[in-house]
Structure formats: structure tokens, C-alpha cells
Amino acid sequence: MGAEHPVLNGEAPDTIEELRQTRAPVTEARHLPAYYYTSPEIFELEKQKLFYKDWLIVGRVEEFPNPGDYRAFELVDEPVVVCRNAKGELKAFANVCRHRGVAVAIGSGNAKEFLCPYHAWVYDLDGALVSPSRPRGIKVGPETRQLPPIRLETWGGFVFINFDEKAPPLADYLDADDYRQSVAYVHPEDTVLVDTYSYELDCNWKLVPENLADVYHVEVIHRNSFGGSTYKPEKALAELVFTKYGWYKEYVSGTMAPDAELLFGPAPWLKDHPKGKQFAFSAFLRPNFYLFARADMVQPFVCYPLGPHKTRVTGWTCLPKSFVGSPVFDEKVAILAKFVRKFADEDSDLVRAIQRGLNSKYFVRGPMHEFESVIHHRINRYLEALHGNGEVL
Ligand code: FES
Ligand SMILES: [Fe+2]
User: Fold this and answer.
1) Could you tell me if the CB of 100 is within 6 A of ligand 1?
2) Atom from ligand 1 closest to the CA of residue 121
3) Cα–Cα distance, 317 to 333 (Å, whole number)
4) pLDDT of residue 8
């Protein structure tokens, strides 16, 4: 233990005992202590140990088809702009002007260059300060001539960034968890984004993947959608393949559309699959990405903290490229878009309710059910990422 564990310092004996209980085998384990979901210190630790070290998914490559296409956003308190440069390469920069720090890109769209709204310094699509420009007359060193670059790589049509210059390449990060290999046969790279659903929840970010991994609640909350009489949590659990940091599984479930109807038919790569219309797949990637696939779509979700008690969730519906332009395409996409909002909202009330409980002075963490072994796996890998795997754990 050291200065880098602010919450543990001064509370060590109780905390270590509490964490030991969380790390016990699932049938003897208790959930995480409430402060992991409420404390600003834990949130700071998560930034340093997870979000500013790991590869983070920020979008799809097809959001940026042309040179100049860009999107500015905040990710875990850092302003970022992703854009396609004049050569057609995707780039990421800190959206922080080299003069006084104002964001130079706003919203999304297509730009030839980025004009800082404060004193009109201009940056090109490679983040380089355009010269001659307003800085004339002030001394500008080499670092001032370039917006701070952020590492960017792509896989499967997804755009990833990494705030850590020393992080391993994306391929190594994915392969450490067998992610490329386990996801390959749902072909995310052959799909195209047709709908983005992004919404805020008043809860800690960890509750979102925990809820998505929770087979225990499905028969209760989703009994009228996909958790009806055929859903068996024991079976859902048996289908799981645990990887070092996450898991994946192939299972039986209807697609995410009214009456589980395949509005466009099956994806070309799944048309002969033995599960047919009932093909379903999911794969979790640390720290916060959950890819779901069905017979006709890939539908990933990602969640980012906006603070200890606030989270932004984004769900992308991606369809095989070959579906694009088929009859009544837009109308069918609108049906899918409506459905994903309904299904996501079924869980939103619940995760907010968990957070309210966690905030209560009466809250005592409860025991885990064996159906929660996925949550147990995830929490344990999370604790190791936060605190190391040494004397504390
Ligand atoms: S803050 Fe950007 S030009 Fe001054
Ligand atoms: Fe759910």
C-alpha cells in the first residue's frame, strides 16, 4: 500500500478485510463496498489506473468518411477532437488551444481547419498551428506549434484512443483478452453505424457493465421483452467463456427488434449458422465496452463516467453493409432505433435505484449469488487494476 491508494490509507485493516470478502469465491463473496461507487478519490484512482491507461472506444470509423470530418467531445474530463486529416488518416488531439486552453473544435461536422474562438489561432487537420497567423509577434516554441496528439488506432470499425503514450499497441491490448479472435465471426468491420443512442444516467459508471452482465435480473426486469419464459440464467452462465479480464459467450436470443423479427434477414456471415434467427453473442472488453451481436446486427454499448455519480452511456446499432439501400431502409432503421431506446430504458431506472441505495447511510453490501459470477470476475480484475495484485489484495 502507498500514497497512491488514497481511500485505503488510514482505513487499511477494515478496507483490506472488506476487499478480501469481495475477492472470496463467488458463493462466499460480498459485493464491493459502497464507496467504490460514490467516492471522488476512487474516481480519481480509476482515471489514473484505468481510463488514462487503457484503450478507449470513442466511435466508429464511418462517422468520419471524408477529410475534415471531426467530432469534439469530453472523455473522462479530457477534451478531445477526432478528425480525418487531408491525407485521409484518422487523428486525435487534445482539444486544448496552445494559447489559453480554449477548445478549438466545437460539436461535430466538417472543417478545413480549427479556429480557436478566443484569439483566433488556427490549427490544421493535423493539429499543427497554421502559420502565418495570429501568434505573430509572440515567441512560439515547437510544442506550441502542435495540439497535443493523442494515440488513435482502429479495429473492427471502432475508433480507439489512448491517453497513455507508453501504452502497448491496440492489437496487444485486445489480444491479451482474446478479443479480436473471439469477436471475429460477428464481423464488426463489415457493418455500418445506423443509429447512436447516447444518454446520461445518475449512477456510477461501473453499474452499467455490471447490470449488462447480470443474468440474475433478466427474468425479473425483462420478462416482457427478452427475458420471458424461455430465459434460463443457469444456461446463460454456462455459456460464458471467461477471458483474462472479461468474457464472451454465444447464446440463444431473439434480435433487438419488435417480436424479434429480422427486418433485413440474417447477416451474410451468419445465414447458415445453426442458431439461425436465435443467434446471439456478447463480449466484454475492459474497462467499459460491451459488444452485443444478433443474427442481423452488432450493437455495442460503452459507458464513461462524468463523475462518481454520473455516467454517459452510448449504444451503437450497426448493420451489415450489404443491408444499406435495401427497400424501406430508413423506416426499418427507425423501428430498430425505437426498440433499443425502450430496452435500454428498462434498465435505466434500475441502475439509478441501485445508486440511490448505495448513497444511503443504511446501505450494507450484500452477498453475491452464483448467477453474479460474471460481476465477481469483473470486480476482481477491476480491483487488481486499481490496487495491484500485491499486499493489499
Ligand atoms: S485561447 Fe486559443 S487563441 Fe487564445
Ligand atoms: Fe437488463
Assistant:
1) yes
2) 3
3) 9
4) 53
